Amino acid sequence: MSDCQQYLKIQSRRDFLVKSGMGLGAFGLASLINPGRLRADNDQSIHHNDLSLPHFAPKAKRVIYLLQSGAPSQIDLFDPKPELVRRYGEELPESVRQGQRLTGMTAGQTSFPMAGSLFSFQQYGHSGAWFSELLPHQAKIADELCFIRSMYTDAINHDPAVTFIQTGSQFPGRPAIGSWIDYGLGSDNENLPSFIVLITKHNGGQPLYARLWGNGFLPAQHQGVQFRAGSDPVLYLNNPPGVGMADRKVQLELLKKMQEGQYESFKDPEIEARIAQYEMAFRMQTSVPEITDTSDEPDYIYDMYGPDSRTPGTYAANCLLARRLAEKGVKFIQLYHRGWDHHDDLPKHLPRLTRQTDQPSAALILDLKQRGLLDDTLVIWGGEFGRTNYSQGVLSKTNYGRDHHPKCFTIWMAGAGIKSGLTYGQTDEFSYNIVRDPVHVHDFQATLMHLMGIDHERFNFKFQGRRYRLTDVHGKVVKGILA
To answer: Which residue range is the domain that position 430 belongs to?
Structure first.
């Protein structure tokens, strides 16, 4: 070896880490021996003088995120506005709209008639939270919920908005929240992925792309794994005909040796990620059929979640499955329900969506609570933005549609570390602008990370010369909703 080659080898950070036993292979081995100890404190992520993750004692051990894709109307569900009802059909005052950006679907309208909700509202619980008549089951658990009425976002169209609330950026390519959590905190169950995705089947609505639960620039094993309804919950997981578990194990060992040889030649961390994925897939061949078979659930549980819970792939069945996954230690469970994009005929279509989601959402909270899991599980319900107070298209006495509205919308949170029975933030009497305690998407994400024991400003990953984080360069913890 020449002096130049020896100098370059000495200066190789990766070679030093490998030889000192702290290389990527050691991290991979550690994840198999004790997955819960896998942390993101390597040279690509957090500064070495930072505390190892979690940064402080977490309030939440896991998250169940019920994302209602398409944007539910806050005006018709959680944020009643009597003034809109009184002034039904009148023009939205310019002093309220203030020339704010509109979508291409209503920018050409010459009239913006206000449409108060046709559904009645009532207060429930000791907290006096407001619920639409469309949500009788959630109304019964009013004192378990914390409403944020003052959410706002930067995006006005679906794809950038849902990408933003899921990844912290409107542009594709960033890691999803669940991937960040998995990368930073590791797994509590070596036989199941730490980040699992459930999508309601056959519900139409805006498309959902796999990049919403993708790993972005993080190692590939941290991407979300989608569970589907049917005999093959995870694609390509089952052995083909004629191949038994013993055969598959031999194949896996041979693949591992080949990949390890390739890693020794190229030192590519994605090879290590591939090995980890192969090994996880092998373990999942046993764990996935067991967890997705809900036939052992008693009848009263099915009754709690509603009749749809017996049909795999429905929202109700996925809520029940989310509880089972939470029991098994899965850290981040992402549930998507589409169809909330009501540009027309909202009074006709919205009740169908609430019938699908109201009872199962409430049942999930009650089920977690009766099992003692709500104390350390964070549950989130909400969409990517809100809906306009004026009608898109023609307004009648019995019908209206609502366009996208990024300036204010409502979500609710429940469980670990959250003040129950609280309504946080306030919109104006037209539900068009925020007048108190605004909460940006990055604030929401910072708060979620905080509840998991992570300081969002210190948790980052170096990629292409820059340190990235979920909240980019913004975001503050919303302390007013913390218990």
So the answer is: 40-87+115-227+298-390+406-481
